[in-house]
Amino acid sequence: MSTTTETASKATPQESTEANPEANPTGAPVATLAAKNERRRSLFTSSYPVIMLIALAILLGVTYLSLITGRYPVELDELFRILGKNWFGMDLKVYKPAENMLLTVRIPRLLAAGLIGAALAIAGATFQAVFRNPLVSPYLLGVSQGASVGAASAILLGVGTSIAIQGSALAGGLAAVLLTVSIPRLLKNQSTLMLVLSGVIVGGFGTAALGALKFIANPETQLAQIVFWQMGSLQDVRAEALTQFALVAVPCILLLLAMRWRINILSLGDNEARTLGINLTRTRGITILLATLVTATSVCIGGPISWVGLVIPHLCRLLVGSDTTKLMPLSVLMGASFMMFVDTLARSLTSAEVPLSVLTGFIGTPLYVALLLFGKVRVK
């Protein structure tokens, strides 16, 4: 099955030009024609700085909304007093319970949600560019299933503290990806297709292993904890876990942004990348490693949150096209805003916390359908 995306994929203009030489009467390079066609397809490519400013304004607005909204609302003047006292050393009188809630719960959780959203969005954009498939998600290589098995194992072993679960989830996710990468090497076939198939194999095995762990789990205690973790939540995130997460996620995000020009060349295809002097094996390996690492750390903190790494890159691609030099920075801002908004809903809608994947599914599914209809994605 092949996928053609008029608004997203660079494969379509390349394939049509290669298959029909008359479509390129000027003799211009395929990459140049693809770029021109992509600029025509995107809605606001010429207004990229304006789009970035709007995305930044949305991020700041969602940040403010998240800080004051919740089961315990915080007034604007109280928020400023708390931030002024703790961040700028000002001698201000504050309401102590509100101060404790903001500093120990709400702000760490807000930052974690923003980082997770940015990480999953840029990982999704990276995988979609590297594999030249707009239907690829950050969980392609089995990191979600591996992390779920690791977290479930920690719960069954009775070390159900948040730090232990996060560490086990990270180890399980990285082990799954390592196994996925090792299979093509063992078979001496390191093509992109074989890597994708290896991810499917490892993901299927991880799903089966997780089902076995659920079967033997205590249905009154352990099973509920496993299921809730799988649906995603940030209720246990505190400053220590956030710091550890940021030490891995932020450098990976920055490195991916620094490599976005090379990733853009990879998305043109292997032949074009070789012609432009790109070391395919090294560049593809580094980008996959960084995207996988940032995805694994995100999963270990918040669980396997669905749709973010698939929907956000599509939305950004509709706005600025498939040029990753523009797509990836916008994905970071939009992904952070989306996850911060979803987490605010999760802790505000009801007295009990709503799992994140429930909300991302309800929001992401219709949004993705709308993007497919608007972008005219066809599956042949």
From TrEMBL:
CDD domains on file: TM_ABC_iron-siderophores_like (cd06550)
One Pfam family from the record: FecCD
Biased composition (Polar residues): 1-19
This protein's record includes keyword Ribosomal protein: no
GO biological process: siderophore-iron import into cell
Top-rank lineage group of the source organism: Bacteria
UniProt GO molecular function: transmembrane transporter activity
Transmembrane region(s): 48-67, 110-131, 151-181, 193-217, 237-258, 286-307, 327-346, 358-377
Gene3D superfamilies: ABC transporter involved in vitamin B12 uptake, BtuC
Chief site of localization: membrane
Region of interest (Disordered), ranges: 1-29
Any one GO cellular component localisation term in the record: plasma membrane
Topological relation to the membrane, as annotated: Multi-pass membrane protein
PANTHER family (alphabetical): FERRIC ENTEROBACTIN TRANSPORT SYSTEM PERMEASE PROTEIN, MOLYBDATE IMPORT SYSTEM PERMEASE PROTEIN MOLB
Protein name: ABC-type Fe3+-siderophore transport system, permease component
Protein source organism: Rothia mucilaginosa (strain DY-18) (Stomatococcus mucilaginosus)
